[in-house]
Amino acid sequence: MNAQAQPKVALKTPLQMFYHWEEAKANAIYFTQPCGNGYVEEYTWKRVGDEARRMAAYLRSLNLPEGSRIGIVSKNCAHWIMSDLAIWMAGHISVPLYPTLNAETVRQIMEHSESQVLFVGKLDDWDSMKDGVPEDVHCISYPLSPPNDFPTWETIIKQHEPISDKPTRKLDELATIVYTSGSTGMPKGVMLTFYAMSYAAQGVVKELNVTSDERMLSYLPLSHVFERFVVEMGSLAAGFHLFFAESLDTFVQDLQRARPTLFLSVPRIWTKFQAGVLDKMPAEKLDKLLRIPLVSSLIRKKILKKLGLQHVKFAGSGSAPLSQDILSWYRKLGLELLEGYGMSENFAYSHMTKPGRTRVGYVGEPLPGVECRIAEDGEVLVKSPASMTGYYKDPEKTAESFTEDGFLKTGDLGEIDELGRLKLTGRKKELFKTSKGKYVAPAPIENQLVSHPAVEMVCVAGADFPQPHCLVMLAEDAHARRDDPAFREEFERTFQTVLNQVNQQVDPHERLAFAVVVKDQWLIENQFLTPTMKMKRNIIESNYEPYMEGWYQQRKAVIWE
Question: CA 345 to CA 408: how far, in whole Å?
């Protein structure tokens, strides 16, 4: 089944976009790459084209069958995007791997995709990944790679002349296979064409009036469609300057170097930014200063400058919902956070909130060319020119994922208001039934509970119990104080208020019996989170299952594990 309609819009392929800017802005800076020890390297559009062409010549010299799959495993860096361009120029298909995967998942993806070559780049824990790379895979090393004995990028581009032609690829050709970060089982390979990627890039650039003068900091994983769509494809479509982050420790300096005009992040980062500000200036004092006309503008500018966001025109948040409290807090600073909604299966091109048209609890309106409707069972259905052609080697799952008329079944539950704005009310598969036979949708309840400043994540569960409960993971700074009696007392008092508010708003069968403040930090490394920072509910629930009976018997509002 080919779920994507035939192209109806004249588009440039990503390579054609690149060739345009390579000529129009040959000596302008495309990439700014920190290399450690304070050294920063800059790559012009001309240099990027030259290095990508030399690497493409090397890939051609390997005599791989046309359309071979080539993996990229690296944190974000200039060479990630240059590899993507080289793979496409050489006539092949790129397969991104998250830089935090374990060896087992690396092997699953490499074997399933039949990737024959792997670019190994900037990584924090290559030792825990390398055993997953099949022995017959040819690896290539980036300048910022961990120690290895692979052929290096620098050596290869010195030894090979650049290809002399300008391959463009056909719009309906397969460009990339993106493996979803599923919470269980084998990740699914989402097949995306050049048309899907180009359509998404054109749509967002037009919608936000993005120009070649923009600056962006790339630090969210390029292996995820959210960053790849807006950052990689956005820069190719609009021709703007990309800065790369060096590390978490240098993130503030990286931001201040980039002075971004467009900035993407996830709720965890927005929450940390807020906590950092409030740690230096208590919320009550800040609120008072922001109400003083002559002082408020100075305070706003000072805070945004400290964060490196003083030049931002559009700030986006994705991956998970942001609490209304945080959205309102940033709006007071003059920064309107635009939320987006999308999936790997439609290259994250689906919905976005628009300036001046936001509504609390809604993820926005369909982007250009996107249709959305709600199925009889409440599932959100989306049809988009950016939709996948299907799952790699899995026609059965592909057929199950689309309606007869080509709408993608998102698995999300939702509703649409009179202006076409979409509200997500939960996941079909996350619904659970209490012992009273009533269904509970956990996501809307969790979204309200994370409004507490000390809370980072919440998992609402309770299948086969009379009432649901919630597991609470504290934010990093709060977690460090969890054994302080004064902190515990204050947290119990304030979180009890949040619990009471939630329980007053939900139906009786959804009221939370108690909250458990867990001592664990839910991380990618301990398998509690997917590589895209989503909770693995089955792992979390099974980890705490042995304690449930005892917790229900305690009858306390807040329980400390």
Answer: 8
Assign 215 to helix, strand or coil.
strand
Distance CA 461, CA 279 (A): 32
Question: May I ask the CATH class of domain 431-560?
Answer: alpha beta
Which CATH class name applies to 14-244?
alpha beta
**Comma-separated ranges of CATH 2.30.38.10 domains in the chain:** 363-428
Q: What is the mean pLDDT of residues 225-247?
A: 95
Backbone angles phi, psi at 447, to 5 degrees: -65, -30
Residue range 359-368, pLDDT digits in tens: 877 889 999 9
Residue range(s) occupied by CATH 3.30.300.30 in the chain: 431-560
Question: CB of 77 within 8 A of CB of 122?
Answer: yes
Angstrom distance (rounded) from CA 144 to CA 161: 23
Helix axes 293-307, 267-280, angle to 10 degrees: 120
Report how far residue 286's alpha carbon sits from residue 294's, in angstroms, rounded to the nearest whole number.
14
Name the amino acid, one letter, at 535. Answer: M
d(CA 426, CA 22): 44
- The pLDDT assigned to 2 comes to 44
Give the pLDDT mean for 441-468.
Answer: 88
Candidates 2.30.38.10, 3.40.50.300, 2.40.70.10, 3.40.190.10; CATH matching 363-428: 2.30.38.10
Q: Is the pLDDT of residue 6 over 50?
A: no
The tens digit of pLDDT for each residue in 37-88 reads: 889 999 999 999 999 999 999 999 999 999 999 999 999 999 999 999 999 9
| Cβ 469 vs Cβ 515: under 8 Å | yes
Q: What average pLDDT score do residues 258-267 get?
A: 90
Which of 107-116, 272-281, 376-385, 409-418 comes out lowest in average pLDDT? 272-281
Could you give the percent of the chain with pLDDT greater than 70? 97
CATH 3.40.50.980 range(s) for the chain read: 14-244
The SS3 call for residue 282 is coil
Q: Inform me whether the pLDDT recorded for 3 exceeds 50.
A: no
Contact assessment for residue 7 and residue 171, using Cβ atoms and an 8 Å cutoff: yes
Look at residue 337 in the predicted model and tell me its pLDDT: 85
SS (H, E, C) 44-94: EHHHHHHHHHHHHHHHHHCCCCCCCEEEEECCCCHHHHHHHHHHHHCCCEE
For residues 70 and 87, the answer to whether their CB atoms sit within 8 Å is yes
Q: Which residues contact 356 (CB under 8 A, 6 or more apart)?
A: none
Dihedral sign for Cα atoms in the order 237, 238, 244, 249? negative
- DSSP line for 462-526: -TTSSS-EEEEEE-HHHHTTTT-HHHHHHHHHHHHHHHHHHHHHS-GGG--S-EEE-SS---TTT
